[in-house]
Amino acid sequence: MTTIEYPTIRWARAIPDHPAVITAGLVVTYRRLEALIGSAVGTLRQHGVGPGDRVVVCGVNSLDWIVTAHALMRLGATLIAARTQLLPTEARALMERFHPRLVLCDPALQDRWPSSWPLTVISQPSSASDVPAEIDPDSLCTIVFTSGSGGEPKGIGLTFRNHLAGALASALNLGVQPDDRWLLNLPAFHIGGLAIILRAAIYGTTVVVHDRFDPAATWRAIREDRVTQLSLVATTLRRLLDVEPESRCPGWVRSALVGGGPAPSALLDSARDRGFPVLPTYGMTETASQIATLAPWAPPAKRHTAGMALPLAEIAIRDEHGQAVAAECEGQIHLRGPMVASAYFDRAGAARPLAGADGWMPTRDVGSLDQDGYLTVHGRIDQVIISGGEKIHAEEIENVLAEMATVIRAAVVGVPDAEWGEAPAAMIERVPGSADSVEDVRAFLAVRLPRFKLPRIIEFVDGLPTLPSGKPDRQALRERYLTR
Fold first, then answer.
1. How far apart are CA 3 and CA 138, in angstroms?
2. Which pLDDT tens digit goes with each residue over 300-344?
3. What is the pTM for the complete model shown?
4. How far from 162 is each of 169, 288, 388, 461, 483, CA to CA, in Å?
């Protein structure tokens, strides 16, 4: 077995007084972080946790969450990152599926988890002798759940080598500066949030922790905590721009990644006009976060793509028969690289392979590569609407609707249609007090989309059902339409 030194040890030795974590006005240096990790290792051992054990962690972003994650990795245990919105029945199902040694959760969530311990126990003083300095990078490190946009969330098994490869690939694309500060306001239990925590520890930089996304708080963090890097989705980017419509992004911000699905071009351009160094990105839980991201040096003609495959990674586009397609042609996205997970866990808790014998992992996403290798993501395979033989991507219509000033969010689903087989239906959440009518929406779309892509049904709703990731719950919308 080949082992490697855990990265926080190096930084505690080399830059002990450099900020590792900033949260709620508290600055935690690498020296202090390493001491907290040692204490947490002692506490976890007292609870019987050792190498190979599984531990559920369920809580909002906090110093306790971060310390616990590092301590579990140091012990060789597996972190099961549970979302905070789980219902008691879902929590019990997770316990039966993975049989964890221990459950640590926020005190407010303990009623959902039988026999759990409060996550805050980690911050209590504890002695730990012989804190492991070396870890096995190929043992199971984390189980992180997918967003569920393609159905039931999958538990993806990732090794530390997967996380390390993803962090290094990102660094080779974006660069690393000693004063980098990455804002964590994505949930730590999602791969985008966990990746920020691990990147900072691997790079020896700083993570600024917010317990949730708040646009005003994000502006304050940029200005007061000198945040240099952000991770956003289209919805949070729009909210960030709207809360301070006259403000410009300070020059010290180096990158603002926008992922979670194709983002409207108009939104990206608006953010860039206000100084945000917006970089569209593509990734997933199965790839330990990013696997393609637009580089800061990419030419302007590529600014609306998701960039090229990151260093160490490969992207291929294949047809329904598994054959490679030509440049600019649409097909299923396939991925390969050291950041790609090897397995997911089925309902019984058994590990199942994600990739084929050749190492390529098929995704449920549709996209294309241009002649220069830049990726454009068109949407999910299961969100393609076949209407009269024509393929319509739900995300394309949603992105056009998002350009309307009175639209907060929109979701498009395919519904049965007697004439065309299937037709797009748009559900729109409007700005309160908006006077836009269905006819106004149709007129707006008619000059921006070909006729066959225009929604046959347009409805205004008070609020859209969402998945835990914040993405629209299209299955719930489809069922709502079918059961009316």
1. 9
2. 999 999 999 999 999 999 998 989 999 999 999 999 999 999 999
3. 0.88
4. 11, 6, 43, 41, 43
